[in-house]
Write a structure and sequence with these properties.
The chain is mainly alpha-helical. The protein has one domain (16-31, 47-78, 86-156). It is built from five helices and no strands. Helices cover 63% and strands 0% of the residues.
């Protein structure tokens, strides 16, 4: 390792906290400012609640699949630690960020189950924060740590899906 090589991504918090923060702010807006429903009071919320529950399950499964791939590769799951290998198997053949994709899917599912319009408004803010505060740092680190191997991986696999 050279003196200028990055030792880890430099992320200082667990990335799921961004999604939880988005839902917390949505809850505060929904409960303290103005209720903003996706489906009005006169309509049944059962269809969106069912769709939301399915999205939550799908999102959790995608996240879990990503975690399993990291465990099999015996590399750090938390972005505060150094990676010992570049994971290109399992969901990482399809997406460079399947755990974050799963979190985003679960967030959208929670938004539907709760019928919170504010969560939809805040979703782009959460994704931009994730990109700037986590993904950009991880990508710089992985490029520095794995060089051409990571560049080739980025050419083959999309960031999301």
């Amino acid at each position: 390792m050279s003196e200028t090589q990055i030792r880890n991504p430099g992320v200082r918090f667990p990335p799921p906290s961004l999604f939880l923060a988005g839902l917390l702010v949505a809850w505060l807006l929904e409960s303290r400012v103005r209720r903003f429903r996706l489906v009005g009071v006169d309509a049944s919320t059962a269809p969106i609640e069912t769709a939301g529950a399915m999205l939550i399950v799908l999102g959790v499964l995608v996240m879990f699949w990503g975690v399993v791939a990291f465990l099999r590769a015996r590399t750090a799951i938390l972005p505060m630690r150094a990676a010992s290998s570049l994971v290109e198997t399992g969901p990482y053949r399809i997406s460079r960020n399947p755990m974050y994709t799963g979190m985003a899917i679960a967030y959208l599912g929670a938004m539907l189950v709760l019928n919170w319009g504010w969560a939809l408004v805040l979703f782009p803010v959460v994704i931009v924060a994730l990109r700037r505060l986590v993904i950009d740092r991880e990508e710089r680190y992985l490029h520095d740590a794995f060089g051409d191997e990571y560049v080739a991986y980025c050419r083959r696999v999309r960031r999301w899906i």
